[in-house]
Specification:
The structure is a homodimer of 386-residue chains. The first copy, chain A, is α/β, with parallel strands linked by helices. Chain A contains 14 helices and 14 strands. Chains A, B: This is alanine--glyoxylate transaminase.
């Protein structure tokens, strides 16, 4: 069941995405010690390049072996203390789960929850911030379950105006590198993401960028961090050591995946984040036009709240994910069903991020558009004229 | 800095180890959805094969994206509650750190600590167990910092005789597949390990096998698990779903590393765990004879406590890790310096596990023996005759 023997399907779900050949080559780098000077240099360079990609010169990058979800634990266990108020802006499944994570660490999260497909308004957020002192506000940049994008820039400006000490934590798992974000300039406090989305590296790396403000909050804790593997006390010296090109050890890093991340970040820097954001915007506009042209409705309530990284689309009457997704699989393209409880079977999700939009000449998105149209037709859908 | 451009060195540290070409090929499997039916089948088969490799038919295997260290958090946060007594048998660095991990979760660990190179005696363990009611006993099967092996079989028999409800947790990070262990037969409760040691897969997977007794203790908790990413409440349904070949989602698994694990476990099953244990024993006897033949002393105080997976060796007077390790690196072989505080520079460590001992015809261990002897000579050591 390896590269050679497993029939290739186009992986067009909202992550994991298609990986560049050079990235896949790098993740199969031969056995290398985690304190090999050559690997130390690669990891150090990777951390430096994360600063560059996210325009986060003043912040601390952290890369840990784990899934994107681990980033929530790192935030909740290091930045919140028992009873701390947290405002969780919820635009889908992932806001609900991040709330659970804060509860596990005995913080006191409050959800400001939009109806599926929408997002809380700035007025609602301002009102919520005026009602309670929040130590942390979290926002899902793109909620993978709905394809709704949040306006991180406006939210951060609002927080700085009405509650300047509140930390702004951006869950950018499905957004980083696909949706515009300038860490220092926008004054964000934490960006957390994962390797397998628009960054374009196989899953297994939890990636964070942490502001000096957030590090100050962490350092001023009055209670110990109630976690071991996610403890910044353990990881900050390790990240600093790698960046200083010195050997260190807490837990063995995922050496091969970090080789992959190193290659992916260099590709991103070469193309340029701004050009990449534009490519995602263009692909999203085009993909939305395609499905709307077929007469379908988007899960996001309007184009302003629709992500550039992915699109969630309602099925027409009579078609469900249980039929449609396996049919497209048979045609060589993997798309995802819905993720929200109850309504999951009623919509599907397509990722158009990373390689498929940065190198459109590969035809991945075009092929996906084609099989989506053919699949709908196969199940008897007659299109906009119905 | 990928496979093609990075000069190959033989990675003979006690993990990460040399990886089989087919495993490296599998970890670069093209992009595949975590709910692709083909991946679901591969993950399900991998879990079944973990049962077979560890002779753990009645136990629950768990594979999570993370380093081996994460296994400690899974044990400490799910199986211990605040104030629970834990006896940590300590044979080096990793017992100290596991103790810290229990403290992070507010359990009450007590260390039974041997001097470096030795291990607690069964009499000492029995005495400790008679003094307090311990919910959990932990033992490091092989402590990577000292190369000391613990007698897991005898310890488990002792626990079952004098404190039958105490859970026996085996930190097998540097031992699994290299040192004999039969999970069900020996009545072990938790085996925790990582992918990059004798299993032979790049780092990034935390692997556990959990007994029904331990699951019962977990299920009878009276307080919530104070962790999110490490919570068995989240992961058990996922593992059961993959084994039942059903789609599920909590956090995206490290798809490519699991492809690698699938290949590695099939190789292990093909050779047979017993034959693999024997190969490790033979290689260890041979390697110890080599270094002792050169007049060097082992860190383990005698052969009975010396691991089969690796060997830790004291340098002769006048040679330190800071000189010796880079010199061997220059000769194409990567060995590790010491890991214990204060005495770290005074000894070195060699891993002889996995591929290098299962396929001795590759000559990895022979080459290592040769450069160790030449390196000592290079630094003026005249050998046993000195």
């Amino acid at each position: 069941m390896t590269q050679q023997t497993q029939d290739k399907k186009l992986c067009m779900i909202p992550g994991p995405i298609e990986f560049h050949e050079n990235v896949l080559d790098a993740v199969s780098t031969h056995a290398t010690s985690h304190v090999d000077p050559r690997f130390i240099n690669v990891f150090g360079e990777t951390l430096e390049n994360l600063r560059e990609v996210f325009a986060a010169k003043n912040a601390q990058p952290v890369v840990i072996s784990g899934s994107g979800t681990l980033g929530w634990d790192i935030v909740a266990s290091n930045l919140a203390q028992e009873g701390d108020n947290v405002l969780v802006l919820t635009t889908g499944y992932f806001g609900d789960r991040f709330t659970e994570c804060f509860q596990a660490y005995k913080a006191n999260p409050t959800q400001l929850k939009a109806t599926p497909g929408d997002r809380p308004t700035l007025e609602q957020i301002e009102k919520a911030l005026s009602e309670k002192e929040y130590k942390i506000l979290t926002v899902t940049h793109v909620d993978t379950s709905t394809g709704v994008v949040s306006d991180v820039k406006a939210i951060t400006e609002l927080v700085r105006r009405v509650s300047p000490n509140t930390l702004v934590v951006v869950d950018a798992v499905c957004a980083a590198v696909a949706e515009e974000l300038y860490f220092d300039e926008w004054d964000v406090d934490v960006l957390l993401t994962a390797s397998q989305k628009a960054i374009g590296v196989p899953p297994g790396l939890s990636i964070l960028v942490i502001s000096q403000r957030a590090l100050g909050v962490y350092e001023s804790r009055t209670t110990p961090v109630a976690n071991y593997y996610a403890s910044l006390a353990k990881w900050l010296p390790i990240m600093k050591a790698y960046e200083a090109r010195k050997p260190s050890y807490f837990a063995t890093p995922a050496v091969q995946l970090i080789y992959g991340l190193n290659v992916a970040l260099k590709q991103i820097i070469k193309t340029g984040p701004k050009a990449i954001f534009e490519a995602h915007k263009k692909a999203a506009v085009d993909f939305r036009a395609h499905v709307e042209g077929l007469g379908l409705k988007l899960v996001p309530v309007n184009h302003e709240v629709a992500a550039n990284a992915m699109t969630a689309v309602w099925f027409p009457e009579g078609i469900t994910a249980a039929d449609f997704v396996p049919h497209l699989f048979g045609k060589g393209v993997v798309v995802a069903g819905g993720l929200l409880a109850d309504i999951g079977p009623k919509y599907f999700r397509v990722g158009h991020m990373g390689l498929s939009v940065v190198e459109p000449e590969r035809g991945y998105v075009e092929k996906t558009k084609q099989v989506v149209a053919e699949g709908l037709s196969h199940f008897g859908y007659k299109g906009a004229s119905q």
